[in-house]
Specification:
The structure holds 2 protein chains of 2 kinds. Chain A is elongated and about 60 Å long. Helix content of chain A is 17%, strand content 23%. Chain A has a domain of 59 residues: Ubiquitin-like (UB roll), CATH 3.10.20. By secondary structure, chain A is an alpha+beta fold. In chain B, a hairpin with a 4-residue loop joins strand 1 and strand 2. In chain B, helix 6 runs parallel beside helix 8. Chain B starts with 6 loop residues before the first helix and ends with a helix.
């Protein structure tokens, strides 16, 4: 089996029930089913998780880091979006 | 006894037992897990109601954006209303994991089959109301939502965690506004007092009927959809808010509010449940206006949906050609 024909999959693992799946890495596989088995073998050898998602990399639409300044505004000019912006009397400051 | 077992019933009982064991073990239920139909329905009711509340809640505050007294206040209010729309989206998306579509939920809201928090049927009459809404209404919502971070349904729990992270700014900007008004001129202080008086009782009603009168509470508690009862959450809100009223130097909105040493809680007067019932059932001051506006905004956005459909139709023949 030629390596070039294998597809790249991204692997997401949920470390315990109730938490989000987190991206842990990628791998090559022939089919989604194979990707799932390889992901289990590669990424969950030490009880890292209870659930695995695999997604073929080409199906992920991603933003470009080179565009980040135009695409994702860090909103540093909007400090009022943060709770710490508001100064309250000490006795009620735990709000 | 017959030899043949009803496999489907056995299977169902086993699934139910597994489900209840997960709940008992504090495990979250995820969309791909089996769940009883009543659990699913109960969640759809509560979560869609929560989503609708976020979206309808944009109206009373949106009412003051163009009339904010300063650019700073306008920017803050815009950011807050934008957050509420975002929270609605988190919650609609989480509800959709239960197999209901966005358009079904919106249809249910617009035909009054689904409810939203009754508080948003009250008008925001003065600028101080914007302070009262952030401080009291968001404050009450936070008490409820902190508790719901531990709800048994995974997507709901994760949406609550995300929302709670963003809520603190909402309450603090409201309190800061109230504080400025309460420490301002006599007229401003009077506006703050009036806003507190009008929003106090509807804020307490946000927690819903007494536990003994709540239609869904017992089952929701059993399945850990809700983690604390309406009355317990309401008490928590009262206990945290009374000292905040004292710091503002305003009069208590309920003359019966007083510390009960024995209980370790504040006692308070009885809520006007007839008013609550009237507002929930569509007869509050702004029910008609809120839905009418929602329907109009939805219809005004039809051209966007139409453009999406036209784009899809245009793409499809091209894709078909490529295959051929």
């Amino acid at each position: 089996m030629s390596q070039e024909h294998l597809r790249v999959y991204e692997v997401f693992v949920r470390s315990s029930r109730g938490l989000d799946h987190k991206h842990v890495g990628s791998l090559h596989a022939e089919s989604p089913e194979h990707a799932l088995m390889y992901a289990r073998d590669c990424y969950t050898r030490r009880s890292e998780g209870v659930s695995i998602w695999v997604v073929e990399s080409k199906n992920i639409t991603a933003s470009k880091e080179s565009d980040v300044e135009d695409f994702i505004d860090p909103m540093t000019d909007k400090p009022y979006r943060h709770a710490t912006h508001y100064v309250l009397p000490d006795s009620v400051d735990n709000m | 006894m017959t030899q043949t077992h009803d496999n489907s019933t056995d299977n169902l009982e086993q699934k139910l037992a597994e489900f209840e064991q997960k709940i008992a073990d504090e495990q979250k239920i995820e969309p791909s897990d089996w769940m009883p139909e009543a659990y699913r329905k109960n969640l759809i009711r509560q979560m869609s109601q929560h989503a609708h509340s976020e979206v309808i809640g944009m109206q009373p505050e949106g009412n003051w954006i163009t009339r904010s007294p300063s650019l700073r206040r306008k920017a803050i209010l815009l950011a807050k209303v934008q957050d509420e729309g975002g929270h609605g989206l988190y919650l609609y998306s989480a509800t959709e994991t239960l197999g209901i579509t966005r358009s079904e939920m919106i249809e249910a809201l617009q035909t009054r089959q689904a409810k939203y928090a009754s508080i948003f049927n009250y008008p925001t009459l003065s600028w101080a109301d914007i302070g009262a809404v952030g401080w009291l209404v968001d404050g009450a919502a936070i008490v409820n939502q902190i508790s719901l971070q531990r709800t048994s349904y995974g997507p709901y729990s994760r949406a609550m965690i995300r929302i709670c992270k963003e809520e603190s700014f909402h309450q603090r900007q409201g309190y800061e506004l109230m504080y400025e008004m309460a420490k301002g001129s006599a007229e401003q202080k009077q506006m703050a007092q009036d806003a507190l008086n009008r929003f106090w009782w509807p804020s307490l009603m946000m927690f819903g009927p007494h536990d003994t009168d709540s239609a869904h509470s017992a089952q929701s508690m059993k399945w850990k959809i809700k983690r604390e009862t309406n009355d317990d959450l309401r008490q928590k809100f009262i206990d945290q808010t009374v000292p905040q009223i004292e710091v503002l130097g305003l009069e208590m909105p309920d003359p019966e509010l007083k510390w009960n040493e024995e209980r370790g809680h504040y006692d308070s007067g009885e809520i006007d449940w007839e008013e609550f019932k009237q507002v929930i059932n569509g007869n509050g001051p702004c029910n008609h206006q809120r839905l009418k506006h929602h329907i109009k905004a939805h219809e005004d956005g039809e051209w966007v949906r139409e453009a999406v459909r036209a784009y899809r139709a245009k793409q499809k023949p091209q894709a078909d050609n490529q295959v051929a």
